[in-house]
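Tokens in:
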């Protein structure tokens, strides 16, 4: 007997790009102090009021099977949120509640792609994207962006890759680059989707974390609501990463089939978690702004810490909870820089190469520790970079 190739080929037979992260964790397990600037985990926990709502629901008995599409209250609230943020009329019939955004990405690709279909995604990319595409039996096709263009996907590059493809996955605000896609960029994306009859899968989990520019959902562009599968999540907006609560917003016929998929896979999301999410959404935008405020503040601290030198450059830090740093002036790859920084300073960052070829010569820094420790780590990172140039 053999395991299915679809399962064993999820990472493409190679590394998943997280070797530096795993090495840092082994160092911590060995008793060393390591400053971790690796993963997108808030340095605050889920708010006590949300946890209290979750506990109240569980103790009140909402611990059995919940409705597979999601509870009526939560689907209504998510629909209202998406309608407000995209400007497109949306009802509960357009919403499937999923166990986190990652499950939403998987479901969306299963809806859009047949086995063997090329599925496009933007490089640099969130680490799970190519594996998610392989897991549904499609063929991942990266479309590279360029740091000198702020990592905005270009229409010509998309057009060159799109022949025969079934879908295009984008993420704005972007992890790992921090880029917020402009209206011109998204108009080009929409034109390519129409020209090549692509489904657009729009990962918008960072839509509340915009520090420069404006978040535009491609669902709001002319002719795109019918071909856009929007993936959202409570993880980043409400610091609910461990609660695993997300959604897919799509045309009603798509949601009908995705409900059937959920019935045969996840069988829904725990009711008490959904009730907590409903409570969280009802706290309004001020609550979400408070969750994002530390990253807005640390973005300013990042730019200040990197000012006055030209060895480590931020590109472009417009949104999300990360700063992508250009360290090509050191002559090192992102991987060599990250490993050297970990050895010399016990600071863990993610190599740009973990997120694709386009981010080679960069490192991603997660702005997820307290301000003073964060600035101190950045200063040590810059000093380490300078030491590499002087060698």
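Residues out:
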């Amino acid at each position: 007997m053999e395991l299915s190739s679809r399962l064993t080929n999820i990472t493409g037979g190679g590394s998943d790009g997280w070797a530096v992260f795993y090495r840092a964790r082994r160092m911590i397990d060995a008793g060393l102090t390591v400053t971790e600037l690796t993963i997108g985990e808030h340095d605050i926990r889920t708010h006590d009021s949300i946890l209290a709502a979750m506990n109240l629901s569980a103790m009140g008995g909402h611990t059995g099977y919940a409705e597979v599409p999601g509870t009526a209250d939560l689907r209504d609230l998510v629909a209202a949120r998406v309608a407000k943020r995209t400007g497109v009329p949306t009802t509960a019939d357009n919403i499937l509640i999923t166990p986190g955004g990652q499950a939403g990405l998987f479901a969306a690709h299963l809806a859009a792609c047949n086995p063997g279909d090329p599925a496009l995604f933007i490089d640099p990319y969130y680490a799970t994207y190519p594996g998610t595409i392989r897991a549904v039996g499609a063929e991942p096709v990266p479309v590279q962006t360029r740091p000198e263009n702020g990592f905005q996907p270009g229409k010509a590059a998309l057009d060159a890759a799109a022949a025969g493809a079934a879908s295009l996955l984008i993420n704005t605000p972007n992890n790992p680059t921090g880029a917020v896609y402009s209206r011109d960029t998204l108009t080009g994306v929409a034109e390519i989707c129409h020209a090549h009859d692509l489904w657009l899968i729009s990962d918008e989990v960072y839509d509340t974390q915009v520090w420069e520019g404006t978040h535009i959902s491609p669902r709001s562009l002319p002719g795109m609501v019918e071909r856009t599968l929007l993936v959202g999540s409570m993880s980043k907006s409400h610091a609910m990463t461990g609660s695993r609560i997300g959604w897919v917003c799509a045309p009603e016929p798509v949601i009908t089939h995705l409900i059937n998929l959920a019935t045969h896979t996840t069988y829904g999301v725990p009711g008490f978690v959904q009730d907590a999410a409903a409570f969280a959404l009802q706290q309004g935008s001020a609550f979400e702004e408070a969750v994002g405020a530390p990253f807005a503040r640390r973005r300013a601290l990042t730019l200040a810490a990197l000012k006055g030198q030209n060895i480590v450059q931020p590109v472009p830090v417009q949104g999300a909870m990360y700063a992508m740093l250009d360290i090509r002036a050191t002559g090192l790859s992102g991987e060599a820089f990250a490993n050297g920084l970990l050895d010399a300073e016990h600071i863990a960052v993610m190599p740009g190469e973990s997120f694709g070829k386009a981010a080679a010569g960069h490192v991603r820094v997660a702005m997820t520790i307290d301000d003073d420790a964060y600035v101190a780590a950045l200063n040590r990172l810059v000093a380490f970079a300078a030491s590499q140039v002087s060698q």
